[in-house]
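Our preliminary data section would be incomplete without showing what the modeling component actually yields. Below, a chain of 320 amino acids is followed by its predicted structure, encoded as tokens that our downstream tools consume directly.
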Amino acid sequence: MSQQILKPITLMGANASGKTEIALELARRLGGEIISSDSRQTYRFLEAGTAKPRGTWTGTPAGRFYLVEGVPYHLVDTLDPRASYDVGTFVKDAKKLVSEIWGRGRVPLMAGGTGLYIQAFWNGLDELPPADPVMRGKLAALADAGGKEALHAELAALDPEAASRIPPGNIQRVMRAIEITRLAGRPVSQLWSGKFFNALPAHEGKFVFIKWQKDLLAERVKRRTAARFEDWARETRELLDKGYAEDCPGLKTLGYPQILDYLAGRLTRPEAARAIISASMAYAKRQNTWFSRYRNAMLVELNRYEDYDPAALAEKIMNA
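Predicted structure:
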């Protein structure tokens, strides 16, 4: 199939919304390969908490593929938990992969819930100063000492406009805004071109937003947390035994701090599970808010459990 006949398909949605299963169905029907737009599935050793699709590596070092049910699945299971991965690197890696996938005569599919990655891939990034690890460490210490409110207050003092646009709960974006302001010597809001917030380019790709009814999504999150809790605890314990620090980037992934508290005896298992569910639903709310602004995306609403049929949904998306 040619690039002229088909456009890349991007599947978006909150955590636990079933994007992976639908993407796999689409890939099988279209002869496609999947690029993960999930910032945490990149990490090796983290599976239970990231919902990384279970696959196997095959091929040679010059051409290795992570296969999930026979489908090549990219940008997963590659990064050491001590390492960091940012949106700029994702955009560079994903654009290279899209070109390679078309070159193999296959169709690129993107699936994930990191809205920042999807938006940056399709609309580009502003030219901003690179990250400063020393400054980032000091900002992380400020957040640890004073909480997210203290960090957001620092941003408000430097750039009130940026503070009004970035919520206190989005700690990474708050830290990055402070970092850019200090490095550039001017408010980050003055450096934003505005293109980042443009609508997604429907003439270049097909965009699909999978949205569950809130109570049903909450039930899915609860079930997934219960089903994976033991594996979550096991893989976290194994990382600690290998010498990974509790504050390494990988273990800051949603849910892992609560598992660490459980392993250290700071939380009981029920308390840890409730904390994970609460954090997951808060994150899902932010994800749904982000994706809801894309008025030109195909909205797939799931209001009953029976509505979730990956094969039927894949067919619907293909024929839309």
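The chain is about 50% helix and 15% strand. The chain has three domains: 9-126+199-213+294-319, 133-190, 216-284. Preliminary results of this kind motivate Aim 1 of the renewal.
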